[in-house]
Amino acid sequence: MSTVAIDLAGVSKTYEGKVVVDGLSFRVAAGECFGLLGPNGAGKSTIARMVLGMTSPDAGEITVLGVPVPARARLARARIGVVPQFDNLDLEFTVRENLLVFGRYFGMSTREVEAIIPSLLEFARLESKAHARVSELSGGMKRRLTLARALINDPQLLVMDEPTTGLDPHARHLIWERLRSLLARGKTIILTTHFMEEAERLCDRLCVLEKGRKIAEGHPHALIEEQIGCQVIEIYGGNPHELHSLISPYAQRIEVSGETLFCYAPDPEQVRLQLRGHAGLRLLQRPPNLEDVFLRLTGREMEK
Amino acid sequence: MRELCAAALPANAWNWIAVWRRNYLAWKKVALASILGNLADPMIYLFGLGFGLGVVVGRIDGTSYVAFLAGGMVATSAMTAATFETIYAAFARMHAQRTWEAILYTQLTLGDIVLGELAWAATKAFLAGTGITVVATLLGYAAWPSVLYALPVIALTGLAFASLAMVITALAPSYDYFVFYQTLVLTPMLFLCGAVFPVAQLPNVFQQAAHFLPLAHAIDLIRPALLSRPAGNMGLHIGALCIYAVLPFFLSAALFRRRLMP
Ligand SMILES: Nc1ncnc2c1ncn2[C@@H]1O[C@H](COP(=O)(O)OP(=O)(O)OP(=O)(O)O)[C@@H](O)[C@H]1O
Ligand SMILES: [Mg+2]
Predict the structure, then answer these.
(1) Pairwise CA distance, residues B159 & B83, whole Å
(2) Which residue has the higher pLDDT, A250 or B98?
(3) Which of A248, A251, B51, B215 measures 20 to 30 Å from B200, CA to CA?
(4) What are phi and psi of A215, to 5 degrees?
(5) Dihedrals φ, ψ of A65, to 5°?
């Protein structure tokens, strides 16, 4: 078996004259968690759909699990599990029925599906909800059921489009923990997200997207180190331009985004010293993160 | 081009069954209401018109008006049940509920899904048409055992109308457009195809037009079966219904391919 799970080479997609994915190439190794990180409209879902063969690229080649896509996408999909951006569970069915019906789409017999339902429910921590209607579940439970559903065909590869968007922190952490256990079992995951934290915690490698183009690729911490590599001070509540000239001798780089001034400083104490005596300023010093990488590469913040 | 066809055509001869079973499971939960709903309307027409108008009309084509109407109502109920299942329920599964999207993530193709939906709509049409047939037979307005010949025709009629409606479902941006199909296509067909009065009553042009309408072919097969009379041109009628079942299927699958996999 090949060690490359997904191979995109020079893939482009245009919708109604608008370039949505622009000459994108990346490879996902088997067993890896690969993230597609980008703001709304960056093309994340379009890429996920192309990997599944649900949308054909206008140019470029896609190979998934050794199979050319979309030409033989059906073959690939038999070994893929999907968590879509928007839940599409059957609301009128119970949790158990959802799994049963979905297993049959993969050609499994009722008995075969019933044999694995308990382990799927246990994985999704939904043991007590087997006979609850989906419409009665919370958002986090629905998402976990979608995850369990995606595992019904024991896939090698999981394609997850914003698996935790809209969930509260507790529900989100539970999903993350479940995804890590899948990675430990050797599954390959490609996930899209616009949460920096999610990408940082889960992904072995990620591809930062803006307007369908790759603007950076690598291990999250390596990207942060390489692009930022020093402490960050966020400064609120002053005139950004005045402050800019005041602290610029001590900063490696300064970005202004809205009311906030981001100061990248190898020696944060020096900056703090400069700002002492300026009333009404609020300072927040923190380690650098992917948000800073995005800001640096695009000149704007991702969330908002 | 090849991949375009691969996505739009059924992948094999049995994948559609999983879609049918999904719909069956959903239907079982509301079976009673669904059956009553599908039967009530044509029954009201059958007996309301049959007895009410029957007094005025008297005998028609050598039989009572109710017995004449029975064949028309059986065919019409199959038409209506198949159409409504497709333009409302299947449209909801395709559009708002995203059920089809979920199915497309598995190893099923759009062709498998459309085929499963058509088979399901034909099943519901069969239930509705058969229900009225049974009532008409029990009350003595349909002849036993020739009435049995009507049953496969009811299923085929359902398949043909489901297939036609599937094209409308593939094209309609929202529910609002289905009203046009109902009022401009289905309702006129009721009067053009001999469901409530013989086609011979119509002006000649309309009689000619009726030859091309699927409901007319369905009625020409079902009414003789219910009245225990020989049906003429059976091959033609069955062939026409088959064409109406098959061609729109391929057309709708291609349209869905364009709509759902842009
Ligand atoms: N079927 C379509 N027809 C026309 N335009 C489309 C279609 N699908 C997506 N787009 C456009 O392509 C762009 C990228 O969409 P996509 O859904 O891939 O973004 P995304 O990164 O997933 O965004 P989000 O975070 O909002 O989910 C958007 O501008 C969107 O409007
Ligand atoms: Mg998206």
Answers:
(1) 9
(2) B98
(3) B51
(4) -110, -10
(5) 50, 40
Answer yes or no: do B101 and A84 touch at CB < 8 A. Answer: yes
At which residue do the structure tokens 């409901």 appear? B215
DSSP-based three-state secondary structure for A258:
coil
How far from B41 is each of B61, B122, B187, CA to CA, in Å? 25, 18, 14
pLDDT of the residue at A304? 46
pLDDT in tens, A215-260: 999 999 999 999 888 899 998 888 878 888 888 888 888 888 877 8
Residue with tokens 């193709």: B109
Facing residue for A90 by CB, picked from B18, B99, B106: B99
- Does the distance separating the beta carbons of A74 and B11 come in below 8 Å? yes
pLDDT digits (tens, 9 = 90+) for B131-189: 999 989 998 888 889 999 999 999 999 999 999 999 999 999 998 899 999 999 999 99
Contacts of B260 in chain A (CB under 8 A): 54
Residue A201 and residue A34 in contact, taking contact as beta carbons nearer than 8 Å: no
pLDDT on residue A120:
95
Question: Which domains are delineated in chain A?
Answer: 4-79+155-224 (3.40.50.300), 93-148 (no CATH), 230-287 (3.30.70.330)
Instruction: Find the Cα–Cα–Cα–Cα dihedral B25, B29, B31, B34, rounded to 10°.
Output: -100
Q: Is the peptide bond before A287 cis (omega within 30 degrees of 0)?
A: no
Nearest residue in chain B measured CA to CA from A76: B107
Strands (E), chain A: 4-15, 18-29, 33-37, 59-64, 67-69, 80-83, 157-161, 188-193, 205-210, 213-218, 231-236, 253-257, 260-265, 282-286
Which of A88, A100, A146, A161 would you mutate first to test chain B, the one with the most B CBs within 10 A? A88
Predicted confidence at residue A303, as pLDDT, reads: 57
What are A170-186's pLDDT values in tens digits?
Answer: 889 999 999 999 999 99
How many angstroms separate the CA atoms of B48 and A218, rounded? 75
d(CA A116, CA A183): 20
Q: What is the DSSP letter of A126?
A: -
